[in-house]
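User: Some background: our group keeps a shared notebook of sequences we're curious about, and every so often someone picks one and asks for a predicted structure to add to the entry. Today it's my turn. The entry only has the sequence so far, pasted here. Could you supply the structure so I can complete it?
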Amino acid sequence: MLDLAIIGGGPAGLTAGLYATRGGLKEVVMFEKGMPGGQITSSSEIENYPGITEVMTGMDLMEKWPEQAMRFGMNHRMDEVDRVSKDENGIFKILLLGGEVVDARSVIVYTGSTPRRSGVKGESLFFGRGVSTCATCDGFFYKNQEVAVLGGGDTALEEALYLANICSKVYLIHRRDEFRASPITVEKIKKNQKIELVLNSVVDEIVGDDSGVNGVYVSDKHGNKRDLRVSGIFIFVGMNVNNAILVQEDGKPICDLNENGNVIVNLKMHTSVKGLFAAGDLRIDASKQVVCAAGDGATAGIQALEYVND
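Assistant: Of course. Here's the predicted structure to add to the notebook entry:
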């Protein structure tokens, strides 16, 4: 039986494994169907991780993390988890996609979330080369350039305001004439002279060349078309929370979720089920930054250690 099963191999999962094994847990396994590292490994440039003074790729940043965690005893299984459940004796059952069941005393789930794609033509082609879903991560690369933001919720408007501090101009594209965001945020948007509202409009296509995005084609509800010459487009049309493994056979989640499907945790990463912890983008109010995910992982790893020892 495992002392701790970690599901997900991103920054939170790796940090949890490091702290749990270094703290004394002997049987710790991280389940990650691919190579460890998480979503950040697909980023072309990282320059905001504390202590890293040179710009590097996400792959370079994460290169040594698995080695460090495994040096203290964490093991990695390249298996995909289908479901996590808990039996009447308080033992967690980790059902793998191939049918195998692994027992564990405690579980940390770090399966994250996936930015929802808009489905616009050119989005996949230029993703990471002018198409982004994180203004905090990538906004600086468009300093003094024109960019577009697609979306109408709080996140889209807040990110547009953030980009307006960096970029020369921000086109905020929304398919309706009213926003779903809070009134205060909307008012800030309307007062910002660097943000141009492109309402009742949709993006028809994202275009570019070998260097990346150089424009977006937009049309409004009357059929009028525009060619916006921008260096990048930031898409905020929602997130898909990767919580499927928490759903039980009866269709109900093993622990409490909020209305968006995020796992409800306290400051110690405890879920509503004893011995089950959630960290990173999967949890409520996640900051969606590598450094924050690592902090979540450290907290969850320490808490799992205390739970098993008790």
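Suggested note for the entry: The domain at 2-115+239-309 is CATH 3.50.50.60 (FAD/NAD(P)-binding domain). The chain has seven helices and 17 strands.
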